Every structure is written in C-alpha cells, then in structure tokens.
Amino acid sequence: MEARRKISKRDSIIEAAIEVFSQKGYHNTRMEEIAIAAGAGKGTIYEYFSSKMELFHDILLTGWRKIEEDISVDEMASRPVAEQLLHMLSGHLRYFQQNRQLTRVTICEVKTIDQELVEWALQMKEEKEKQVCSMIAAGIERGELRPDLDIDIVSRMICSLIPYFASYVVMNDLDLDSYRLADQISAVILTGIKK
After folding, report:
1. C-alpha–C-alpha distance, residues 46 and 9, integer Å
2. 135: buried, middle or exposed (CB in 10 Å: 19+, 13-18, 0-12)?
3. What does the pLDDT look like over 77-123, one tens digit per residue?
4. First vs last C-alpha separation in the chain
5. What are phi and psi of 150, to 5 degrees?
6. Distance from C-alpha of 148 to C-alpha of 150, rounded to nearest angstrom
7. CATH 1.10.357.10 residue spans of the chain
8. From CA 20, how far away is CA 15, in angstroms rounded?
9. Domain 1-50 adopts which CATH fold?
10. Is the pTM above the cut of 0.90?
11. Cα separation of 121 and 182, whole Å?
C-alpha cells in the first residue's frame, strides 16, 4: 500500500510539473508552484527529485520510454518497410497529440537547459537514427528499396520529420488523424512527389 501511494504521489508531481512547465517554461517555474499544482508540500517533491533539473530530466526520460514502448520497431522488423515506417510515424504523431503539454515543454525547453540534457537528447536522436538505418538496410537487402540509397541520409531525413511534425501539430494546436498524416508522409518518402 505504501509503495502504491508513493508511486501515485510521484505521478501527480510529474503531471503537475508538465502542466506548470508547459505554461511558464522551465526557467520561470519554481518548485513551490509545482508543489501547489500537485497538492503536495515542497518538501514532498524533494523526497522524489533532488532538483528541478532532475524532475525535468525524469519527465523527458519517462516520455521517451513511453514512446519506445508504444512504438516498438523491433517487433515490426520482419514487416515491409512501408508498414514499419507507417507504424513508427503514426505512433509518434499519436503520442505527441495525446501528450501535448509534454511535447510543448520538450520542444521549447530541451535545448536551453543544461549540457547534460542536450547530450542525452542527442543520444536519443542517434538511437532513433540507428533504428531507422537498420530498417532501411533490411529493406534494401529484401529488395524493397533502391540499392543506391545512402542509408544515413535517408535515416536522418526521416528522423528530422518527426520533431518537425510534432512541433507543427502541437504548437498550432491541431487535431489531425495521426494515421492519415503518417500515411501521407510515408507515401512521399517511399514514392517521392514526381507525377
């Protein structure tokens, strides 16, 4: 029972922090404001997080893990590249729309906070690019994709579309069909825009 209560209090702190960070930004948010929003004392927050930076980092890490769990590329590895790409893109877009406040905070704050967090974000980006490189390489090997593709360039192009569309959808407060948008994006990637 005690562990369950602590998990629930921790989750309420994280939810409150996401809300306050998305409204005020990281630098303008005080831990007292997060405590009030969470219905907790300031000291309670420090039982779970030693600093505002640790709380923010934990929020981003939790979000990243959730995306990776929801959009497991590994279980799709034997499927055609078109299916894998559609699954990955629609999953990301759906996650960003369902977690708008967290996405806003991430887009606006991650590069302005501290070097360790920037390095972590770059590492996550590299991991995603490696996943996509593997997907493209397997597609070439199976004869689904052109053999002359530069795998690194294609991977970077695909991965750069994810934060672009996250920003486009969330910052403009759009409510789009994530599957349909992902289908259009993947169709352009796989077939180009030539008539």
Report:
1. 12
2. buried
3. 889 999 999 999 999 999 888 888 888 888 877 666 778 878 888 89
4. 63
5. -85, 105
6. 7
7. 56-191
8. 9
9. Arc Repressor Mutant, subunit A (1.10.10)
10. no
11. 23
